Amino acid sequence: MREPPLAAGNWKMNPPTLEECVALARGVRDATRELRGVEIAVAPPFVALAAVRDALAGSHVRVSGQDVHEEERGAFTAGVSAAMLRELASLVIVGHSETRRDHGLTEARVNAKLRRAVAASLAPILCVGETLDVRRAGAAEDYVRRQVRADVDGVSAGDLLRGVIAYEPIWAIGTGRTASSEDAQAVCAVVRSVVGSVAGAEAAASVRIQYGGSVKPTNAAELMAQPDIDGALVGGASLEAEDFARIVQYRL
Ligand code: PGA
Asked: Of the residues 69, 70, 96, 130, which is catalytic?
């Protein structure tokens, strides 16, 4: 049995003030209050996590971090550990392409972050996806297959199933270009088959796979209708509570 789809808003380095973060969180809560059959999460910047957690306490909206350090503790300036995060959030984004780029992450480090997150009982939102060059070379499926295999190495099926794997083609993030629903479905099916080969058929049938990359109210319905897509990771359009709610309601 698959868990309900998960729609998550990745706020990145937005909105600019704490007050606006709290207002957006409340806006998402209120705009999605009537929606059933879908899990909803927001991923505010680290510094806003406590305020957003408090604003959403007792509501249906889950809180996610945007990254987690792969070490447990110690001299890692600006690092945020899984244990610290667990006090504020129940989910965490791991290996977002912007974090991979900005921090020069290898697959081994993404894997270490994922292991650290699940060890602290954080449900992971693992992001994978190819560059435009890889897509043009016709190698997207192979690339994502290798990424998922490396990233989930040593992570139990149970821990994977508590979270989600997000297929986010890098060329579609923040560009207004969305993968066609056929291309998105094809890669999400590959992700599911990798989970099958590393964690078994039951895990493959149950794992949730999100699509991310310029998801908007106008393209969400078609993407979410694909058999292997179980929700969305939304950047830009998650900064407007009403837009985000319009995306979420397509999965009903
Ligand atoms: P976007 O970002 O919706 O603005 O393309 C998606 C993401 O980075 O998760």
From this structure: 96
